[in-house]
Amino acid sequence: MAQPRKKLEWKKEVPFGLTASQFGMALGLSGHIVHFVDYVRNIVGTELEFTGNAITDHGINTEPKSRALYELLTSTAVSDGGFYLLEGRLLGCSPDGRVFEDAPPVSSQLMSPSRKGNETKLMGVKNGKHQENPISIRIPFRSKSVRDDSLATTPSPDSPTASTSKRLARLLEIKSPYYALYDSTKRLCHPFGIPQQYLCQMQGQMAIADVDVCDFFVYLDKPVCQVVAWRVYRSDEFWRWAHPKLLQVVEWIRDGPPKSLTKDFKFGEFDYSRINVEPLIFPYDISNSKPICDNRRFPFFAKFVNPYMDPRRSREQEEILRMLSSPVTRFLFDNNHGLIKSEGVEYGEEAMMWCCATADSTGSISRCRNSLASRWCGGAPNGAAAGGGEALALLKPVDFSDYRVTCRVYTPGEPACCDSSQGCGICLRRLRFCERKLFSRLNPLASPPDIRQLTTPLCSQPEGAVLSVSQSDPIESDNDPIIVVEDGGTSSCSSVEVIS
């Protein structure tokens, strides 16, 4: 199982240290504590060490896709997870993601109370005394299997952490189970339906990273596409209970277990119901486009009004439901919807969805730098799809690790959209999944439109033309589009075949 280089260096330097993913085992939630201590002392680093299986590999490989779905449903841009160390470098964590928000002015920070009500936090100052901040080692967020190990200990200029106007709002923990969603019928999943070992992991991450909120997002991609999510809040009570016990286990790993540490030894139990948890995304079956209303499996959610069934749902709940039930979401994330070619970059019709983008005040999807399409077309000239707006072909991603989806945009009646002398009439866009408002405007077409009627003669494509996509310069929605290469000549860029 691939791990970031900095984490490996830390484990080599402090082999007895614990990461948040080990906290549940160290506290005895996954077997005997003495066996865990023996495993870390004598097995880790040898050929007998567990390095993964089909279930763990599935979780790692599905992580980028899971994060993309979280971004789409919540309209949230997720940053890299980072790597944090605390307590003399004895305890560490690497969350799956971080969400940054605009920070309030310094003056308002000084006046606002902390979680505990009687403390003020600002740049490591608590109750007038300087506090040592956690050591943050930035790890560019990719799938755990493809994260770049050539990293620095300081954020890059484009990282949210590089801007003083951003604050870390919450963490993201992603799980992709192999068989079914987590629910309360499974062992040690009470009282919320979240496995208790993951509650320990998230509480440890929040304590070490000094964050108050962590979203727990669970995505099942087979045999059906389903999703559920919780919002978990930091519990000082839990950390007061767990922290000394974790340091005790670290000591046993470093110095050897005492004779009193037998299979019968257990730490006192913690009442996990005292942790504050809220529903974030109620259980939903994307494959069948319907809520999962099973009070036996999800009794925690049954305590709340289900927004899928209640017309009085909030605007945010309405937007989440719109994307959950969208055919576009089902096309992108349901493995049973369309075929994905595991190798190569050519897409057949089975991996493409034709949509019409409804008019909106935010502007066109194409946004060509020299195009008149900076405004939306009110009608449907030249045979465009009924209802006006742009037509686009949405390509189903083979790889979700760049958290973008490619589409080909056709703007009705726009001659020479990219060049006054050699117009292509088609622009490629790389859309970020967090652009929920944009995706919500996409309506599938019953059949592919006649592209020759959508564009003017200047924009017609020669027979056998190839669309070329630059892999080295991904374009987000507010940047210039990737322009189509018309001549189909030799190019170092990958390409997708034009569907006529």
From TrEMBL:
**Domain of life, per lineage:** Eukaryota
Cross-referenced InterPro entries, in alphabetical order?
Answer: NF-kappa-B_Signaling_Reg (IPR051703), PDDEXK-like_dom_sf (IPR011604), Restrct_endonuc-II-like (IPR011335), YqaJ_viral_recombinase (IPR019080)
Q: Where is this region: Disordered?
A: 146-165
Bias-annotated ranges (Low complexity) = 151-165
* Record-level GO BP terms: DNA repair
Q: Name one Pfam family in it.
A: YqaJ
Pinpoint the YqaJ viral recombinase domain residues.
10-211
Give the protein's recorded name.
YqaJ viral recombinase domain-containing protein
Originating species: Trypanosoma brucei brucei (strain 927/4 GUTat10.1)
